[in-house]
């Protein structure tokens, strides 16, 4: 195309030792051609843009409407057609992803020994899990437990950054930039073993949620032994 032809001209002038003015003039023409084909990052590439134009029987500024480009467009169209349509999860009246009642474990059964048949769960919750790959359960922890967990995590984060010499305060949003973007603002370690967090992991409701989700896998895909145990 015109851009690559002009790029070759600039390179040849430079290699031949042409005057600075002549190389600069050729480079200016090259920049103008590049500006015509520029698209923002994250949008359709030049190649795909031309393929789209070719598929519609059009040509772009560089005349890229040949048979090869049209063939590429046809191939791209077939590839796009193989993708399933978007399947967005349902949301509630406030726009949040739909949440379900927390499952429970049958009375008298130790949570660490719970098996699939010991878990009572909304069938719609499991259907959601199987379809979308995730499920949200409501009211698993109490408001007080959530507040205590939040305070513990803030205590941990503030102490960690204090040792690193980086100021961080839960009460000052201007310091929150100190949180690592690599962990999306979470703790730098994979797990936080503060007392409240450990208690949360042992909470019967939390175990019931995991049991409900994991028990929906075929035997052998999750859990212990036959796939329906949740101990450990």
From TrEMBL:
Region (Disordered): 41-66
Gene3D superfamilies: q2cbj1_9rhob like domain (2.60.120.620)
The protein, known as: Uncharacterized protein
Domain of life: Eukaryota
Skewed-composition ranges (Low complexity): 53-66
Annotated source species: Micromonas pusilla (Picoplanktonic green alga)
